[in-house]
Amino acid sequence: MYIKYDPLGHGRLKVKTTAQQEEAKRKEREQKLKLYTAATSGAFKKRLNGEFDEEGLKLTGEILSVNPDFYSLWNYRKEIFLFMKDNKETEFVQKLMQDELGFLESCLKVNPKSYGAWHHRSFILENMPLPDWERELQLCNTFLEYDERNFHCWDYRRFVVLTSDVDLEQELAYTTEKIQTNFSNYSSWHYRSKLLPVIFPDPTHPVRVQEDILLQEHETVQNAIFTDPDDQSAWFYHRWLLGRGRKKLQISCVHASRKTNQILVLLTNYIQVNHGHQLSVNINSSPVTGEWRNVTGTNSYSIIWILTVKDGFPGGEDLSIGVTLLTESDCTQFSQGLQLAEGQDEAWTMASYKAGTRFSIELSAAASSTMEKELEAIQELHSVEPENKWVLLTLLYLMKAIDPVHEKYQDDITEAIEKLTAVDSKRKAFYRDLKSKFMMEKILDVQDVNTRDMTLSGLDLTSLCHTEWMVLVQELDVSQNHLTSLKPLGNLPCLVVLIANNNDIDSVEGLQHCKQLKKLHLQKNALRTVQAFSTLSSLPLEDVNVSGNPLCNIENYTEALKAILPTLAPS
């Protein structure tokens, strides 16, 4: 192109200034917004008018192709397809849904992690006359090739596999391929954990995997953790392989009290009475009616259930009390009985456990030989990675599972926790709570199950765990620890005396459920207000000591406390 020289600038290609460019972009955005708003308004109007037609698909398609996360419009499209399915020929619906799958693929290219688009694709496949599941599996392969951590796509893949007749062993091989490509692919490990129990179920434990397959999996995951000890994906899978056992649901304790007219039942697992399970009571072969409540007085899931006998226990005779745990179909799952003699205020029966077995099932369901081999392997890795938190944490869990009462690995467990606190200081509180949990498990595992008086003072505890196993305790001392909360003690309905001096307690939340509490000592804690005790006003408290707390700086705090707690004995 020839442009004549012009010293005045005429004939030059005109270039827009920055201001002009911004103005042009602004006008373009305004125009797009108008079109977007008009299309949205039109779509909502059609939906309101009950117009389920192809124009509705066109309108919503214009918006969703730009913004595939507009959930209301996906719902409108679902309504259109359901209407078409009921009112159009099968061939027409098949073609329409086939086109929808193509549209969805384009939407997923805009946002591969669109909840709405993936969910809508599941809907289409579920309602399509002739779905092509093999095509869907290939689509998953394509998107996972693009982003192997796209959990939306992994979820969709599981849907495809569950809904179709895809070979599960082929799927397991696919996870192996993805893991070998990248050990850090957590989604592949997770999918593998879902496939193995289905393909290779352990006949003795339906939710577990055959022992020989587990050993092979341990070798696979060891390759990953020895290659990259800092990658958490393989460590999570390793933890899954060790597994957690399932406690059989049964009755652990039955306690009956003439004083409170209550029957208390402690179970091994949490249930919701009248929702899948029932509890029934007979006294001298006569059924007792009433409403079961947990320690908080509600009907939410609990491990402790209490029945108040409306008319009280029959007097002047020995009582034979039977409690039965029933399934939803009224089949007896477990029964437990006890005798309450004439003139006896209370009686109970508590299941006995072999030392070291009460909590071991929570740590691992793997065979002891498997755990011993794993411990040797992780100890070998620890020798070259002495400050790796995943190595230390796994060592800790393995030693605890092998030696639940800390006879063999006591010093090693303590050392591992101290090391974890140092190398992973951001989770210091977690490790201190874990140390407290292990300490309480050790104590509860060997203590007499019928104890009524318990001392946990000076143990460096930061939290209280497994308090349901202290359900019979009447006197408890948790002084000189680092406790900040007493909430777990709400599981102690028999508690009469609580000594919790020299802690960091800033609330009495939970103690309102200890209906027999008479003596409460909370000296040198972090309680700041007298009003914090208002939840305890209905308790029979006679002796409360809060000296050394910040609330003692409040003028006339003792009078204020007595006003809130009317049963306090005079000074």
From TrEMBL:
GO cellular component, one term: Rab-protein geranylgeranyltransferase complex
EC number in record: 2.5.1.60
Gene Ontology biological-process annotations: prenylation
Keywords noted in UniProt: Leucine-rich repeat, Phosphoprotein, Prenyltransferase, Repeat, Transferase
SUPFAM superfamilies: L domain-like, Protein prenylyltransferase, Rab geranylgeranyltransferase alpha-subunit, insert domain
Domain annotation Rab geranylgeranyltransferase alpha subunit insert-domain: ranges: 251-311
Catalysed reaction equations from the record: geranylgeranyl diphosphate + L-cysteinyl-[protein] = S-geranylgeranyl-L-cysteinyl-[protein] + diphosphate
Source domain of life: Eukaryota
GO molecular function: Rab geranylgeranyltransferase activity; zinc ion binding
Sequence similarity: Belongs to the protein prenyltransferase subunit alpha family.
Role: Catalyzes the transfer of a geranyl-geranyl moiety from geranyl-geranyl pyrophosphate to cysteines occuring in specific C-terminal amino acid sequences. Catalyzes the transfer of a geranylgeranyl moiety from geranylgeranyl diphosphate to both cysteines of Rab proteins with the C-terminal sequence -XXCC, -XCXC and -CCXX, such as RAB1A, RAB3A, RAB5A and RAB7A.
Protein known as: Geranylgeranyl transferase type-2 subunit alpha
